[in-house]
Every structure is written in C-alpha cells, then in structure tokens.
Specification:
Blueprint: H1 2-21, H2 24-50, H3 65-92, H4 100-125, H5 129-158, H6 163-190, H7 200-208, E1 213-223, E2 229-237, H8 243-261, E3 265-271
Parallel strand pairs: 2-3
Antiparallel strand pairs: 1-2
Helix pairs in contact: 1-2, 1-4, 2-3, 2-5, 2-6, 3-5, 3-6, 4-5, 5-6
Length: 284
C-alpha cells in the first residue's frame, strides 16, 4: 500500500512535469510509473485472494491468483515498452526543446520514491512470482528514472535534446528483456508445463529402482503455484499387492519425488496387468 501511494504521487508529478517541460522520457517514465500503480494493485489483490481457503467449488482455492497477476504485469511491461519505442522514434526525428531543470528534479523524486519501494519488496520478491513481478516494475522504473536524470543533466549542460528519445528507447528495450523472462515463467505455470528443472526420464529411472515397481507411465507434472509441484502417474506392479503394501511403496515414491525432485503433491494410480498404454507421456 505504501508503494502504491508513492507511485501515484510520482506518476501525477511526472505527467504534469512532462507536459510542462516537453520531455518524452519523463512522460515515458510517468507511463511506466502508472503501470507500476496498476501492477501493485493487481499484486495486492492477488496476494489477498491467494490466502483464501479452498472450498467444494474451488478445491485449489485461489492459489493461482498470484501467477495470473505476474502474467498480467509482465504482459503490461512489454506492451508499454513497444508504445515507448514508437514514441521515441517519432520524437527522435522531431526533437523539441525541453525544460531540463524540471526533468532533473522530478527524476530525483522518482528515484527516491521507487528506491524506497524496492527496498520494501526486495525480500518477498525472492520467493514469490507475483511479488517479483511488482518488484521488477519498481526496479526497472527506478533505473528508468536514473536514465532520465542522466538525460536531464546532458540536456541542461550540453543541449543534447536528442538524448531524450535515445534514453526512452533504451528504457523500453530493457523493459522487454525483463518482462519476457517473467512472462515466460508465468505462462509456463498457467499452461501446466513441466517445471524446467525437472527431467521426467530421471523420475522414471528413480521410481523404477523401487523393487516392487514394474514401470511408471502416463505421467503429468505441473506447478500449481511457486510452492506446489504436482505429480500424477500410473504405476504398474510386478504382483497383485494389498492396499497396505501399496501404502508402504507409496511412501517410498513420495520420498524419491520430494527429496530428489522437490515434488510435494503426488497422486498415484496403482495397476497390475492392466491393458492400457504404457507410454511415459499419454495424450488423451
């Protein structure tokens, strides 16, 4: 909430200052700050939703709310960057005189406000994709403000007004780079892709080392969110075992999955001489 309030103040100040001074880089920084406000609000709502308990109609609860927020925030970074590049190219070929003094002071204000917000969110950004998306918005905006400050100083003392457009394009390219990585990560989770650090063939080999198991097939592995990785599979046994024997073997499978692959939720369908596809991956 503190970061949201700070960014609203910064955005209003930069919009007014950008219009008065004629600085495109200042207006682009204001646009990015506005996206910060939206991303922070989205992240805040998602954070609250994710804490809600599951119910009979929502058996997973709202655990993916933060992943959706991260995806939206990453998408907005890239869209904003494309708009900024378009504006920067147009302004580069039609440079305008800019009130560099106002640009300098408003850039300093943005650096201070965003820098404080970055410090507030740094710890949580290491363990939460949603918070990392908001954190990246703030970090990139702080860096953008540093670029605007440098541009303001160059315009004030060297009258290099074209630098305003170049810095705007540079900020935009950086947004695309950091936004793409987060967009890809959140997209992979939403699409139920296997986490990149898990090799399914390694799981098959590890599970099949358990003496009672003949094979493991029809495997699905996905992330519910950043904390939960799920595995479901069919396991065929060499002989017709009892339920109590299966429970004992299941404990061994869970230990392998958790200790070696950080999978913390497992659903196994036991089989014996069942006629079904034995492929590791089966497309229904």
């Amino acid at each position: 909430m503190i970061s949201i309030i700070l960014n609203i103040i910064i955005t209003v100040a930069q919009v007014v200052g950008g219009l008065i001074s004629g600085s495109l880089s200042l207006l682009s920084d204001a646009l990015h700050n506005f996206s910060d406000v939206l991303s922070l609000i989205i992240s805040y709502i998602a954070n609250k939703l994710s804490a809600r308990e599951a119910s009979v109609s929502k058996t997973f609860g709202y655990k993916r709310a933060e992943i959706i927020a991260a995806f939206i925030n990453a998408s907005s970074l890239i869209v904003i960057a494309i708009i900024l590049i378009k504006e920067a190219v147009e302004r580069y070929f039609n440079p305008q005189s800019i009130d560099s003094t106002m640009v300098i002071w408003l850039a300093i204000l943005a650096i201070a406000g965003n820098g404080f917000s970055v410090l507030l969110m740094k710890a949580d950004s290491k363990t939460n994709m949603n918070m990392r998306s908001a954190y990246l918005h703030l970090v990139t905006d702080m860096l953008a403000s540093v670029a605007v400050l440098i541009g303001g100083l160059l315009m004030k003392y060297y009258q290099l007004f074209w630098i305003d457009s170049v810095l705007t394009a540079g900020i935009a390219i950086y947004l695309i780079v950091v936004g793409y990585d987060l967009l890809k990560s959140s997209f992979n989770v939403l699409m139920l892709f296997t986490p990149s650090d898990i090799v399914i063939k390694d799981i098959v080999e590890a599970v099949c080392e358990i003496e009672e198991i003949k094979n493991i097939h029809h495997i699905h592995i996905w992330q519910l969110n950043e904390k939960e990785v799920h595995l479901e599979a069919h396991v065929e046994f060499h002989k017709n075992i009892s339920i109590s024997e299966f429970d004992s073997i299941l404990t061994k499978i869970e230990k392998v999955a958790n200790d070696e692959f950080n999978i913390n939720h497992i659903n196994i369908q036991p089989e014996f001489n069942k006629e079904d596809p034995k492929d590791i991956i089966v497309q229904d």
